[in-house]
Amino acid sequence: MARTLITCGWIVSMDPALGDLQNADILIEDDRIVAVGRQLGAKAHTVIDGRDMIAMPGLVNAHLHTWQTGMRSIGSEWRSGEYFKYIHGDMATRFGPQDNYLGNLIGALNQIDCGCTTLLDYCHNITTTEQAERSIDALEDSGIRAVFTLGAGKLSPAQEALEPFERRVNPRDRVERIRKGRLTSDDARVTMALAVAGPHWAEMGPTRINLRLARDLGLRSSSHATKRPALAIDPRGYFTLLDEKLIGDDHTIVHGNYLGDEELARLVDAGVMAISTVQCELRAYAADPLVWRVRALGQIPALGVDVEPTVSGEMFREMHVALLHAQSIEVRARAANAAQNMPPLVSREALGWATIGGARALGLERQIGSLTPGKKADIALLRASDLNLFPVYDPIVSIVEQAGPGNVDTVLIDGVVRKQGGRLLFPADVLSQRKRELQESAARIMREAGYVAAA
User: Fold this and answer.
1) 222: nearest Cα among 272, 172, 170, 165
2) Is residue 133 within a helix (H) or strand (E), and if so which, with residue range?
């Protein structure tokens, strides 16, 4: 049994029973936290000196299309229509198995580098089983904890005419092969869920088939709820799915900016969790992110990055932007006497959205999201001595309002050190080679699509 002791300057546990501690320790045995407190007096094989650091739960990125990593920032000046035109309408159809591997590997390693220990990889460009397998290979090779969320891939225009997206279902044989093969365990570091187009994007027949497939195989499911009612394939589709009990606490919706109050309330009441990707939504949608509305309904929000072609991939920024936007709504609501019964929105809540909220959305709340004894040892250590954080008075505020990826010194996932001394422990020579290959992959895809990225 391997034992690791982390001596910490501050511990932000996100466990109400433990609270925040100063000059305390975390004891790990194999892949789990076994004790948190002062003067543990424990012997360990490995001691990590974090006396000038803040220990916190690893961040949870609850929604990322990791396969798009090679197109990072090419669409930062786009709006929603251009993203769908260039990425989904063309580039996505040109990805092969190795393209997915490279995007997922570099994307997942970046998440670790940025202090994120868990990722929901919404992989909705899969057209072959091999492409799915290579996507999973990358997640496993990176060392991240991931929920591989398998979705139907993009087809060429000629194929799309024969099999329109709104009528497509996830091929049962492909889903079963992966679920009954390498991702059969729900306790592994990489697990599985099913991406479902949902009633905004698909007809109800295929939507029902996909959701029943997920239930048959014991999989959680997730759908994009992105469209105004006038543009949705079935604007009352979520009501129907709730009435038919096809979605509940095993389903998440992503975005949901245009959902009506009754619809959102029913979803929340059924246990469906909402995942907001605030950076993307502020740029692409003419309606507010759900964070404030979900909070008012008593549900903890969850956060994700969504698409790195248009926004930053790091969760510190997503968390900060989400808090600022929700506080802006709060200021206006209080000025109109419309939020008098709600507690003030503070930094601790925002950190909860990016930790325990994400864990709950992924069905992993009992495993991750807080530094609770018995949970997985998924931990990030931030250097409190860095000039942008020093001096630290309240570590919660320092994390949410001041910190960024550059402050992440050490990352552990499943008790394994994946970053230390500010450097990833992934083999440097392999990483350099994979970066070159990713750049070549992205260049080929954009060249074939006739897209010229800005110089």
Assistant:
1) 272
2) helix 129-142
What are the pLDDT digits (tens) for 96-137?
999 999 999 999 999 999 999 999 999 999 999 999 999 999
DSSP 387: T
Cα torsion 181, 185, 189, 195 to 10°: value is: 70
CA distance 295 to 275: 12
**Distance in angstroms (rounded) separating the CA atoms of residues 153 and 396:** 40
Q: How far apart are CA 240 and CA 243, in angstroms?
A: 5
Rounded to the nearest 5°, which phi and psi values hold at 375?
Answer: -85, 165
pLDDT digits (tens, 9 = 90+) for 188-238: 999 999 999 999 999 999 999 999 999 999 999 999 999 999 999 999 999
Per-residue pLDDT, averaged over 363-376, amounts to 99
pLDDT digits over 424-447, tens only?
Answer: 999 999 999 999 999 999 999 999
| Distance between CA atoms of residues 239 and 340, nearest Å | 30
> Can you tell me whether residue 379 is helix, strand or coil?
strand
Answer whether 374's CB lies under 8 Å from 415's CB.
no
pLDDT band per the 50, 70, 90 thresholds, residue 161 = confident
Domain boundaries of the chain, sorted by first residue? 3-57+378-424, 59-361
Q: Which two tokens stand for residue 48?
A: 């990590």
> Which residue, 29, 34, 33, is CA-closest to 45?
29
CA atoms within 13 A on the CB side of 107: 36
Same fold, 3-57+378-424 and 59-361: no
DSSP state of 129: H
Q: Which CATH architecture has domain 3-57+378-424?
A: Roll (2.30)
Torsion-angle region of 6 (φ positive above 0: left; ψ -120 to 50: alpha; else: beta): beta
The CATH homologous superfamily for domain 59-361 is Metal-dependent hydrolases (3.20.20.140)
Name the strand (E) or helix (H) holding 291: helix 291-296
Residue 153: predicted pLDDT? 87
What six digits make up the tokens of 455?
């110089």
Helix ranges (DSSP H) in 41-113: 80-83, 97-113
Spatial separation of the C-alpha atoms in residues 68 and 244, rounded to whole Å: 34
Residue 231 DSSP code: T
Query: Which residues make beta-bridge pairs with 28?
Result: 4, 33
Compute the residue count for the chain.
455
